[in-house]
Design goal:
Largest sheet: 5 strands, mixed
CATH class of the largest domain: Alpha Beta
Strand content: 15-25%
Radius of gyration: 27 Å
Shape: elongated
CATH topology of the largest domain: Nucleotidyltransferase, domain 5
Number of helices: 4
Helix content: 25-40%
Strand order of the largest sheet: 4-3-2-5-6
Oligomer: single chain
Number of strands: 7
Length: 148
């Protein structure tokens, strides 16, 4: 009897973590993200110009106003899908959103060969909506300082 008790006490405890369940959960999550990621990309294809300026770091999701080559306006708010709007609707929605969120960054995107007047019209609409600072979107790696 005494020898059976001493054998139990001599058995060492395992100090290892069983990672098999964690690996199973990780693989399931990986598959879920791989399947859902392509469905989450909703965007307006705009060939924006390139620039050598540094990128802006922002903690909040920005509001993006897009002008396409045909002069149509699109609005992308935080969690909402991209919507095509008229100039009046764009101004009203942007004003309502910015009045609630004063510090939210607002960016304007337009193709490099877009009609300059439409881009200026968009900045006017954004200004009338009460936005004081507007960032212009561009792709990194352009030849910004080489223009003559």
């Amino acid at each position: 009897m005494q020898s059976a008790i001493s054998r139990r006490k001599r058995r060492k405890l395992k100090s290892e973590i069983n990672v098999v369940p964690y690996i199973d959960v990780m693989l399931v999550l990986l598959i879920i993200f791989m399947v859902t990621a392509p469905m989450l990309t909703l965007a307006v294809n705009v060939d924006i110009p390139k620039s050598t300026a540094r990128s802006v770091d922002s903690k909040a999701d920005p509001v993006i106003v897009t002008v396409d080559g045909d002069g149509r306006f699109f609005l992308k708010l935080k969690d909402a899908p991209i919507q095509e709007l008229s100039a009046e609707e764009l101004q009203a929605r942007l004003a309502a959103f910015v009045s609630e969120n004063k510090d939210i960054p607002v960016f304007l995107a337009a193709p490099g060969d877009a009609n300059y007047q439409k881009v200026i019209d968009a900045t006017g609409i954004i200004s009338k909506a009460g936005v004081t600072k507007v960032g212009l979107m561009s792709k990194p790696g352009g030849t910004g300082g080489n223009a003559r």
